[in-house]
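Help: read this over?
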Amino acid sequence: MIKRVSFSGLDRQFIALKSIETNPIRADFSKIIVNKPWGYEYLLTSTPLVEVWHLSLDYLKSTSVHCHPNKKTALIVLDGKAQFSSLNESIELSPLDAVVMDSGVFHSTQSLSKKGLKLLEIETPPMKHDLIRMKDNYGRAGKGYEGIKEMQLAKNNTYINFDDKTHARKKFCGKEVCFSFVEDKKDFSKKTFLKKSELSVILSGFIRSNNKLLYKLGDVVSTKELRRPEIKFKNVSLLSISKQ
């Protein structure tokens, strides 16, 4: 399931009541783990316009009810079950379910699994300071992103990332994750990993159908959808996910 959540009147109403932190965060997140009261997160891979973060939430812990006024956000469940809530609805997510949100959508995510919850978070464009916390179980409502005290250098054996921006394939949280650069539809059909992939995230380029823009940066799409003959693309970077 890929759920799309649009910016709503309720989101607009609450954004108008909150101040927005505008100072950019000057930190190199490529080798940092950010500790959170619900677990931790770190940067998995990035392009100039898209960042992919790995989030790990402990059992029954929840992110704040927050929004990103200026960036699109997507969440993909890798392992465990999640309760995703916006201001208008709440749904349960299972592995390989995804949510794609417009900028400004208030949301929270809770871990429902005793072994914890593993997520991918895709942010377009990269702006960690672009954050409004409305409610928080840990006293962070109205506060900005975590500071230096919550950040630590990551040891090489405690996390994985995708340094090779042309092709990399790794086992991660019970799934196989592959970063690949696809020149065109013919090249797409040659890549054996993509034949069993279930979800793909667009990290660069865009995808058209019948001369209409269909998918763009930060979108999550069923990889099966990309096999349709009318789908056209050229020079696209994909982060694709499949079951092991």
About this structure: The two ends are 19 Å apart (CA to CA). The first helix runs from residue 9 to 15. The chain is about 5% helix and 45% strand.
